[in-house]
Structures are given as C-alpha cells and as structure tokens.
Write a structure and sequence with these properties.
five-stranded parallel beta sheet, 12 helices, 29% helix, homodimer, alpha/beta
Chain lengths: 428, 428
C-alpha cells in the first residue's frame, strides 16, 4: 500500500507521522513544493521581531529525521501539477508520475496579492513562509526602514505590526473593514486599537488599499488575500465547499474514495454553528492531519470540528476569542445576548492585571455560543475554558457554577469568567 | 421577613449580598463571632510571607459598607450558642434571642488542635484567621525564629512552609500520610517533594506528630485537624452527612425547612463521583453562599457541586489538581487509567517551561475523571480546562480534539493537555 501526501508542513507531516504509527508497512511519500518541511509558520513574526534569532529554530523536523526515524520519504522542491485520480497517480511539475493507493491533500493556503497594484515591488512583503520572513529580516537589516504600512488587521497583520514596531519602525495598519482580528465586535476592536496606540501603532479602519504604489512608507506588509490552495484538488474532481476550501467528512475524506484532505486547504465543521467554516490555523491543521493520516492508514478517527478559538499577543497583552461575537452570532441565525465585564486576573492585594471577558449566549437555548478575553496574564487559559464550554454545549447557568481553580498567585476567588457569567445571567 | 445569617466570612456575606439583591425589603442580619468579616483567608500565607504588608488588605468589605451600601446589618463579636428552630430563634452567647423567618448557617470550619499535646505553647500556630496570621507575623518580627516545623502537607501546611522559608527559616514539613496536598499520587507527591527540596524545605512523609513538645524547632505551624463547625447546627436537628459536614439539597437547604447552609461547614456534591464530599475552599463557599442567599430570598438557584479543583503555588510553580488520581478513583469504584506526560508550556523557540499533565479516565465509560497539572506558567488555565471537561463529563476522545488557543507567546501548537489526552487514548 502506498500513501502519498501532498504538502509537508503542519497537516501533511502530522498525517504522515500518524499513518506510520498505525501501519508499519505502509509506503509513505511526502511531496513538498518548498525547500523546507515541518515549520511553525506561527513563529515567523517572532523571527521578524528578532526574538527568534535563527529561522532554523522554527523547523521542528527535517526530511532526514522523517526518513531515518519514521521511514517516511520526503521530497522537497517537488511541486505537484495534477492529480490523476482514475489512475491513482499524482503528476509532478517535472512530469514524473507517482502512484498512490491513498492520497492526502495538505496543500495549505497562500497569500494571494495578485489583486494589489504594485505588490511585486521589493519593499512589499507577505509573511507566510520562512523565505518571506528571511527576506523581511534582510530588508530590515540592510535598508533600515523607518516606516511601515501593514495592510489588513488579521492575525498576520497585527503580529507583523507588533514585530516591526519592536524593531523601531513607525507602523500604520490599514483595515478595509470596521473590525480588527476578524472579530465583529466594536468594543473588542476599540480595545485592540487602544493597545496598539499605547505602543504608537496606528490602526486605520475602513480604508481599502487597492494599490501600494501611492503608500508613502519605507516598507509594506500585506496581510490580506489569504486563500486555500485548492486548484489541483478541484481539477481532479475533489469537491470544494461553500467556503472555497476542500470539503471532507468528519474522517477528513473527500468525495473521492481514498483521497483525504486536511489543513489550511480544508474547511471543517464549526461546532457552534454546525456549519462548515474556513479558519486556517496550525492547531486545526495538526489535529485534522493526524485524523486524515490515521484513516488513510485504515484507522477510524474522527475530527469533530472547531469552535474558532484564537489568541494573539499585542505588545504582551493577550487578545483571545472563541465562538461568535454578538454580531457574528446574529448573522449565524442565533438570538444572541452578550455581557462584558472587567475583572482582575488575581486578587487585588496580590497584584494581577485588568482582564476583560465577554460571554455571548443564545437567548432561546441559554447555550454559550461565544466569548472573548483580553488580559496581560491568564487570557490563554481563560479562553480555553470558554472553548471547552462551547465544545460541551454548556448553558450559562452551568458555566456560572464552574469549579475553577483559586489561589491568590493564580486567580481571584471570583474569576472574571464567573463574573461575566453572572452578568450574562442577568441579561438573559 | 427576617433573614439571619450565622457567619460573616465568604459564604455568609455572599449569601447576605445575594439575598438583598433579590429582595429589597428583607430584613437581613449577619452574626459573626469574630472581630472582622468578609476576609480572604486564602491570602493569609501571603501576609505571613510579607508580600501583603497590611492584613487589612485582605478584608474585602467592612460591616459599615454592608450597612450603608446594602442595608445589611452586621454584628461582629457575636457568637451564637444555639438555634431554637421550633421558635425560629437564634440565641447568642449573651443570652439575647433573635427571631428569623429564614436562617443561613455559614459557621465555617476550624483547626481543631485539641488532640495535639503542647499545641497551646506560644511558639505553636494555626493559620486560619487574621488574628492567627498577625500573631505569627509578630512572632517572626520579635523572636526571629530560625527553624520551623510544619505539621501537615495540605494546602495550609505547604503555603505556610513556602511563606516561612521566604522569611529565611529552615523549614521541615511532617506529613502523617504518604502523600502531599491530599493527592493520593506518588508521582505528584514526588514532584512536590522535589520542588520543596529545590528551595531547601524538607518534606517528611509517614511521620505522625501527636505532641509538639519534643519538636526541637523555634516555631511550629499546625496545618491539620481542619473540621467543619457543625455543633450548633447538629444540636438544632440539622442533618449532618457522612463527611461530618452539614447535608443540604442542591438548593443549599438543610433538612429543616427555611434553614440553609453553605461554606466550609457544608458538604457538597462531587460531580465526578456523584457522592457528597467535604472540600472546604473559598470558591465553593462563595458560590454555594450565593445560591443559599438567593433561595432564602425566594429565588430558585441551584448549586450542582464541585469537581475538586485546586491549585497551590510552591515557590512559584503551580501544583494543580481536579477530580481524582488513579488511586482515589479506584477507591471511588472506578476502573481508572492514567497517563502522565511532560510537555512545554510554549514552543521551545519562544521559551516557556516544563509542564507535567496527568489525565485519568474511567476505562468502561472512557470519561475523564481527573487530572493534575504542574508548571511555572499556565497551570491555572490548564487545570481549569480539565475542570470544565470533568463538569461536562467529556470523554477522552472529545478532550483530545479540543480547540485550544495557540500562539507562541501563550502555548505550543500541541498543548500539553492534548499530548496527555493522546497518551491516555493509547492506554485505554
């Protein structure tokens, strides 16, 4: 049995490793179009910042490791041009044909900047691959830019702005919509804006950048246009969902039998809305890749879906979200009610910091359907509690009585999560 | 309608405040035997340590605050001697009789050291009230002790040892049983021992101290003998559960109609074992007190129970537990399987620290029934995720797929919680 995996970053390598663990005899080949595999793309901003000094630190495993330790063949610089599924073959750009019994598509996503005039200029960057980050780092070192424009206020835009500001640049973020970090929530966006301003980064919402030629900045980072890489899959007859990403069942199998997909090229189930969603993140890629690998090797794993958990550090403060904001929940057909409170991360006599928690519930079912946490410490842990509650379909009254850990060095006796739940109970 | 609350610390004041919020016309009287109300007993070790410089910082609200802002009458230094329920009266030690329509018993717990020979010596301490802590602080200042024995390795013993060591004393902890922090788990206890030893505190397990007269230490802190204060309740006919604490229903009502109980004097439901348990903690006292107050004021609140979540800082490292260890789960009638892993709190290229996670599941139902987390950062957030999963009765396969937040400043792409779940899946 031959398993071919297209793509050697998060989903692809998780899939290959998991398949090997379940079947010691499988022939496993990973085809990666780029020069490196298995890197943590989420670490790129910290390399640009200078905190991570060597990009090789972001590479978790090398092809040699997989070859020797896992008996997984990895071919880098090997882009695939087509999948000929009726013949169970992938065709490389070189014309070489490789047979498979099972195929895993983990082609990821890309930053499509073709719609932006002037995006090919040497002072314009995306931040998606190690090569992107190294080019940016070299530009910072050699050209000593003093001003930067960041296009887009998603995760990459915000993290790039943080990294460049820490390099001493004056940074302005341009966001076409009204919200930051993809959260339709005016108060959340205002908190993002204030935190950026505190560190002298300007956030200009409602400004669409169609051309970078007129932008008078020493460098430009484009953090928009992220799209799933589905062309070769779609051409082979793999079904594409309404989100524009590959559709699979909960075993990560596509409409073609024996062909699986996982990672940033794939949509997954949103466990709150019960609809397919495309939120490309490394955690989802790794988990879904692992499931695809298990099933391609004859296992029976399930990937139920996600609740849209995310966190971003803006100059040390965590901005975390899960599920839906009130506005997003309304658009999804819920009758949402939200409550937002400010608490302290620890008892005041012990120190701690201000922590803002918003919880959103559905009025008719009283189920929690979203939340956000903003704080200097504990934001990651607190959003994860909300994520667990969303996955478990907890009601507000259940959440309000949760037995959360208390000790002055860690949390106050009334955790901000519980205070938010009490407030939400009053609104329901 | 008159509501009388016996006890003015966590449960009592939460109950009184909540009752007022639901019924603006209720006459509310709180009777507190001691000189202060509404203090954070969990903060006492940090006052002994010297981090909290003034004990008054631990007092959240004063009687004056409650009188003026909430119209709640508070009488301090007013111990109750009996409850004459047939006449709906409480009798103070002064002989004064006070009528009630509804009664809330929040008499707390005490450190009963009567069984220890020599415990009344001036160099012997408990750490339960502000007066205890002030006496200890004065002793440290005036007598400059150089060695301390701590009897008991529960929360109070461990926190007192940490606080005294930070004052420069040589500290030895004596524990009669084989385990630390009430967790029947050899590996967990070894981790506690190692962390204590790293900071030059000795933990001697299996040593029962019946007399402190022969202990050659400059001071002795007794952290054992904690018991619920149930005498006046029991004498009035209030049912006492098998744990030795007051038994209530999930509305916190006792067997006597109109008489509620909450806080350290009360047992609550353990949501994993579905049996009554007595784990006296401030969080439970506040939550159950709030429910008792609501129901005494005519509301219909429920306190479902706890999952036994706790966290203690030992020289800056969090030692957190929830639910049952393998040994405890076996004693509760489960067929437990555990998996323990060591992960990193963040991606290695970003820093972070070693984090140990143990998860315990029941083999027949595959339900998570316990866990522990040890780590320098994120231990509080991680144990809360386990607590949420226990409350939601999550299975290991559900927990393994949880959508936890990922970003290098906060967590690695495979959170230690998920790695532990993957390991547990292999064992099941």
């Amino acid at each position: 049995m031959a398993l071919v995996v297209i793509g050697g970053v998060a989903a692809g390598m998780s899939a290959a490793a998991r398949a090997r663990r379940l079947d010691a005899n499988l022939d496993i080949l990973v085809l990666e179009k780029g020069p490196v595999i298995s890197y943590g793309a989420c670490g790129l901003p910290y390399f640009v910042e200078g905190r991570v000094t060597d990009a090789s630190q972001l590479i978790v495993y090398t092809p040699e490791y997989f070859r020797k330790e896992r008996r997984i063949e990895v071919r880098t610089n090997s882009p695939v041009s087509t999948i000929a599924h009726p013949r169970r073959e992938v065709v490389l750009q070189t014309g070489e044909r490789i047979r498979y019994d099972r195929l895993i598509i983990a082609t990821g996503a890309q930053c499509d900047i073709s719609g932006i005039v002037g995006a090919d200029a040497p002072h314009v960057f995306t931040l998606h691959t190690i090569a992107d980050a190294e080019r940016m780092r070299a530009f910072l070192r050699e050209r000593r830019p003093r001003t930067a424009a960041v296009v887009g206020s998603g995760y990459i835009g915000i993290e790039a702005a943080d990294a460049l500001r820490r390099n001493g640049l004056a940074v302005t973020i341009f966001e076409a919509g009204g919200h930051a970090l993809l959260r339709e929530d005016a108060a959340f966006t205002e908190a993002v804006r204030k935190q950026l301003e505190r560190h002298k980064v300007e956030l200009r919402t409602g400004v669409r950048i169609a051309s970078v030629e007129d932008l008078q900045y020493d460098m430009v980072v484009i953090g928009i246009g992220f799209k799933p890489n589905v062309t070769i899959a779609a051409e082979a007859g793999v079904e594409i969902g309404r989100t524009g990403a590959i559709r699979t069942d909960d075993r990560m199998e596509t409409n073609l039998r024996g062909v699986y997909a996982a990672g940033d090229c794939t949509e997954v189930q949103h466990l709150v809305s019960r609809r397919p969603t495309w939120i490309p993140l490394g955690t989802t890629a790794n988990k879904a890749g692992r499931v695809a690998g298990a099933n391609a090797a004859g296992g029976r794993d399930r990937f139920p879906g996600i609740v849209g958990t995310s966190i971003v550090s803006i100059f040390g403060t965590g901005f975390a979200t899960a599920g839906f904001s009130v506005a997003q929940a309304r658009a999804e057909g819920f009758s949402p009610v939200g409550a937002r409170i400010e608490g302290n991360s620890k008892p005041r006599y012990y120190g701690g910091s201000k922590t803002t928690v918003e919880l959103v519930a559905d009025r008719s079912t009283r189920r929690l359907i979203g939340g956000s946490v903003i704080g200097d410490d504990g934001a990651g842990g607190r959003i994860n509690v909300i994520a667990a509650a969303l996955q478990a379909e907890m009601k507000v009254e259940e959440f309000e009585q949760m037995d959360l850990a208390y000790s002055p060095p860690f949390a106050p006796v009334w955790d901000p999560l519980l205070i938010a739940a009490q407030q939400l109970m009053k609104e329901l």
